[in-house]
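Give me structure tokens for this 222-residue protein.
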Amino acid sequence: MDDQGKDRGFVISDVDGTLTSVLSVWEYLHRRLDRWDGDGDRNLADYLDGRIDYPEFARRDALAYQNLSRSRLQQLTMEIPRRRGLDTMLKYFQRLNWPVALVSSGLDILVDQIPGASIRVANRLCFLNDICTGEVVIDVPMDGKARIVASLLNSYRLDRRCVIAIGDSRGDIPMMAAAGFSIAVAPLHAEVADAADAVITGEDLSEICDLVGDYRKKAGLV
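Here you go.
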């Protein structure tokens, strides 16, 4: 990397459970639509027990939103609480002129509502005349983040030490491994915390600013 660009970084972040306090937009929508008990919960159990694969799991979940309007689904996802300090964190990266990529196995109708991102990759509900068809395009399967992160690093010709990864679950471990500095936000499992360079409780995302600031100095990115 030349001297002119030595302070340029790149941020890759999960969304559900990381930038929001809700762990799954899928489950949240099911519960708000009274379609969790006996429907969404059964789909999840079938997937976790290996009776169905991820595409079938997502297909069944998406069917629960069939015939709902885009505006209704957007309204519901707007209710999802964002973690405190999210705006402060995103503005911090904007001041640094560091692009932020949101990579989520959740849904685009939530990810698109997070401001300040240059890149958004998530699973996409299908609409016809702004009415959900009950279909979904899977761009980020549960185990798909490693491939997406590798593609981003290659496309942007990123120096690994300039990459910051932020996540909370086992599915985020591959992108943490690809980053120069990784942060676990309220990690769901011990192995996620172990994979990260730093851990925060998730109560205030503005803590990430100080962590990244310290890393920039140590890595010579200032």
